[in-house]
Amino acid sequence: MSKPIDYDAPRRPAVDVEDDSLEELKARNSAPQSATVDLDEADAAENFELPGADLSGEELTVAVVPMQTDEFRCTRCYLVHHRSQLAAQPDGRQVCRECS
């Protein structure tokens, strides 16, 4: 029987400056850098909306599709489901499998 693996544990112990040799530090420093560009925090923050922001000037456009013939509306959660999700109810109400 094998020992269970803790995937949340760090894969390598914490690096101590005293343990690393000068050659290891130079090799790590000369490693190729990634091609990603560091973003300025102020520039990145401009694209985020804060909760409770005034959205009165915004207009949302959503295409509403009518309920199809092979769909039903659950009488408990009020979501539209496919007929394959219909659970049999003795009282005749249309209830989805998740709510039954």
TrEMBL record:
It comes from the Bacteria. Residues 1-20 are annotated as: Disordered. Residues 1-15 have a biased composition (Basic and acidic residues). InterPro entries: DUF4193. This is DUF4193 domain-containing protein.
